[in-house]
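Researcher: Quick test of sequence recovery. Tokens follow.
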């Protein structure tokens, strides 16, 4: 059992993680799972707090749960992305909090109280569940966790029946994949996402022998290749910051996975300049529609 845990990937120079701290972020492939650690099992927890309230309180409650009595918690976050609310959140759990500010972040230090309050409620509120509006398993913190995001909705409306072997890159909880699998001509579908929580939910939602679900960073995906199709709604934020290179990496990976003549169906915000990457990686690029601030593209290798 580790002496310390680290949730998140803080910017270099922001904090010094304890030597040997176990990384427990769901966005780091291969990391441990904070929810699976035993109660009162670690001495120290460092949490780069997520901005969303349900996700943040869930993570803080889990961190307090796994701390030994008197264990130390450091929670921090950008002031404009929830950091200014951390002290109040920790005080609601019964913590006495020392707060300071530097490098545009708020840092809150606390010792686990003898009798924390509200941990079970916060953990239940942030746990995986079936979302009635989706009819699918999801969890706060997953991208668009309780609704179909507009980009995916546009792609769903345009997507034709597909056939053969394919992949859904950045699959989320499996909304696009479920539509793809409605075609009996689909033989196999590999679904990947960097978010362990999304992968776990997708495994619930895509109960189909044709499906394989994997946690992976698409930028370093090692297969499969020779595919007939790829579908994707590429992210363009990494760590909360816009990163247009992330979508370009998705385009290049899709091309690498496809066989000659294979097709990539993607949706992207109209302002994102993927045209050069698509033209470089594919033999033919067709913009099928541009509506509602989104563009739907079919690219053939």
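Model:
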């Amino acid at each position: 059992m580790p002496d310390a845990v680290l949730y998140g990937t803080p910017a270099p120079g922001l904090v010094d993680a304890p030597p040997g701290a176990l990384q427990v972020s769901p966005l780091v492939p291969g990391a441990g799972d904070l929810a699976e650690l035993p109660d009162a099992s670690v001495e120290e927890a460092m949490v780069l707090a997520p901005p969303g309230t349900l996700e943040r309180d869930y993570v803080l409650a889990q961190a307090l749960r796994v701390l030994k009595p008197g264990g130390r918690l450091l929670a921090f976050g950008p002031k404009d992305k929830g950091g200014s609310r951390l002290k109040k959140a920790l005080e609601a759990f019964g913590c006495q909090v020392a707060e300071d500010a530097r490098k545009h972040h708020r840092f809150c230090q606390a010792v686990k109280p003898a009798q924390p309050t509200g941990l079970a409620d916060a953990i239940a509120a942030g746990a995986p569940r079936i979302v009635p509006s989706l009819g699918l398993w999801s969890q706060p913190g997953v991208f668009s966790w309780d609704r179909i995001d507009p980009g995916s909705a546009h792609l769903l409306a345009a997507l034709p029946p597909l056939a053969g072997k394919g992949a859904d890159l950045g699959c989320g909880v499996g909304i696009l994949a479920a539509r793809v699998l409605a075609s009996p001509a689909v033989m196999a579908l590999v679904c990947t996402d960097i978010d362990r929580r999304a992968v776990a939910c997708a495994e619930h939602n895509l109960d189909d022998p044709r499906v394989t679900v994997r946690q992976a960073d698409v930028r370093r995906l090692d297969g499969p290749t020779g595919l007939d199709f790829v579908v994707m709604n590429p992210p363009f934020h990494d760590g909360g910051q816009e990163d247009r290179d992330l979508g370009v990496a998705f385009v290049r990976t899709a091309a690498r996975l496809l066989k000659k003549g294979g097709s990539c169906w993607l949706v992207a915000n109209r302002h994102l300049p993927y045209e050069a990457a698509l033209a470089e990686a594919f033999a033919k690029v067709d913009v099928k529609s541009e509506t509602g601030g989104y563009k739907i593209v079919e690219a053939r290798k």
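The domain at 129-300 is CATH 3.40.50.150 (Rossmann fold).
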